[in-house]
Write a structure and sequence with these properties.
Layout lengths: L3 H8 L10 H14 L5 H7 L11 E7 L5 H9 L15 E6 L4 E3 L1 H7 L16 E6 L9 E5 L14 H11 L2 E6 L8 H14 L3 E5 L8 H16 L29 H77 L2 H28 L3 H23 L9 H30 L5 H4 L1
Parallel strand pairs: 1-5, 1-6, 2-4, 6-7
Antiparallel strand pairs: 2-5, 3-4
């Protein structure tokens, strides 16, 4: 921590000028509060031994389906730019990330993994790195500034050989995706077993993220033909226990073409609303996670300070115990030395030093000890003296080895207290402001009071 003034300014960074949406600004500010080099929550948590995951600035939407199902065409339509190649052939042979940026750019595998470090485990799938790419475009249509599309290879059955384990790669990407769009086309490939198998496995862990669509619905012929195709797809899906659930929905969509009007119902805007809903949910989840992480850090700091106080108390007890043992260890030989000196002095010398009354009192108190000591043999007296000397050494050794626990320095405790105040006062206040800003998009000011 470089001081609360610097930390507060970091948490209240100015918004990026321009046409930045409220949701985009909230996600960016939350991400910055985690990743600030000096005062970010990641840095604070790491110093406390707490593991946090920084929120992402965008949601990840994965599109999957059989080849020529219209995945790339949908991306081009959504961003209103021709980024992905389309066609009946298998155009997308690898994984392509499509995201918005400052300028049009194409990135290869290594650059893609550098841009998205949380996707680096993809390198563990043999052959995937050579088939990774990123397309960056300047489009800000719809909610594209908050979305990263993952265009997956078209899936086919039969002898088609992929240069990597496409099934496992898609399943792994499904774990990191916020939304998974499954496109079925009506041209005979919708019942691709590979697609259905992957969908079934994804549904086991991420059923709430899956959305099914009948793409290219305008090419299915008449209404009766579309209904027949949909019935076939639904029947095939319902044969699989995991996908046989109540409330199954599969809207019909196609990319609008003014030169080719169609009377088919187009629910492609439903996909946009689904993406919008996922963005809103992600914003809420990010703000909720921010509060939970603040509580986690505050609890860790409080526990650290409490443990330090307890260690200080234990250390004081250990030092007191060590002093008592050391004092006792020195007292025994001193008493033996005093007894030896007093025993060698004559009565007249004792009367001169202690006075008659002192000499008489000393003789009364020491008489039992003298009689007990003289009642044993000379050899036993030596053993007793040796035992007392040994006991003295043992007590002195024990006093030296009284263990104390390490404690925090005054500077470390001040830094921890500053971090606690920063999290409680600055980050939580910023989180409250962001939540109110998010809610004002939907409700009136009178409902916020």
């Amino acid at each position: 921590m470089s001081g609360k003034v610097r930390s507060r300014s970091a948490a209240n960074a100015d918004s990026v000028p321009g046409s930045v949406s409220c949701d985009e600004r909230i996600l960016r500010d939350c991400h910055n509060m985690y990743t600030q080099p000096d005062s970010g929550l990641m840095t604070i948590a790491q110093s406390l031994g707490v593991t946090l995951l920084p929120p992402r600035k965008k949601i990840t939407v994965m599109l999957m389906g059989n080849h020529s199902a219209g995945k790339s065409s949908f991306i081009n339509w959504y961003i209103e730019e021709h980024i992905q190649r389309t066609g009946v052939a298998i155009e997308t042979q690898g994984f392509t990330f499509v995201t918005s940026g400052r300028k049009r750019e194409s990135l290869t595998g290594n650059a893609t993994l550098h841009l998205y470090p949380h996707f680096k485990p993809l390198q563990e799938f043999k052959g995937v790195s050579e088939y990774l790419g990123t397309e960056i475009c300047t489009s800000r249509q719809k909610r594209f500034s908050l979305v990263t599309f993952v265009d997956t290879p078209g899936l086919v059955d039969g002898d088609m050989k992929y240069p990597f384990d496409v099934d496992q790669a898609i399943l792994w990407l499904g774990d990191l995706s916020d939304l998974i769009l499954v496109f079925f086309d009506p041209m005979g490939q919708a019942l691709c077993k590979r697609t259905l198998n992957i969908v079934e496995m994804l549904n086991e862990k991420h059923g709430d993220r899956l959305r099914f669509y009948l793409s290219k619905a305008d090419e299915a012929g008449g209404e009766s033909d579309r209904q027949r195709v949909m019935m076939q797809i639904v029947q095939e899906l319902c044969k699989r226990p995991g996908l046989n659930k109540c409330g199954f929905d599969m809207p019909t969509i196609y990319v609008p073409n003014t030169n080719k009007p169609s009377r088919c119902v187009n629910q492609i805007e439903e996909v946009c609303r689904t993406i919008e809903k996922t963005i809103n949910q992600t914003v809420q989840n990010t703000l909720n996670s921010l509060e939970k992480d603040c509580e986690l850090i505050s609890e860790a700091i409080t526990d650290t300070l409490d443990n330090d106080r307890q260690c200080s108390v234990d250390n004081r007890r250990a030092r007191c115990k060590g002093c008592a043992l050391g004092l006792l260890g020195f007292t025994i030989p001193l008493l033996m030395l005093a007894a030896l000196v007093l025993g060698s002095l004559s009565k007249e010398m004792l009367d001169l030093v202690l006075g008659a009354d002192g000499t008489e009192a000393l003789s009364i108190y020491l008489a039992p000890v003298v009689r007990a000591f003289e009642s044993v043999s000379g050899e036993m007296q030596l053993y007793i003296c040796g035992g007392l000397v040994l006991l003295s050494f043992i007590l002195l050794i024990l006093s030296r080895f009284s263990r104390t626990k390490p404690t925090l320095s005054g500077k470390q405790k001040r830094q921890l207290q500053e971090k606690l105040e920063y999290v409680q006062e600055v980050v939580k206040s910023k989180k409250k402001e962001l939540y109110e800003e998010y809610l004002r998009q939907s409700v009136g000011d009178q409902d916020m009071n």
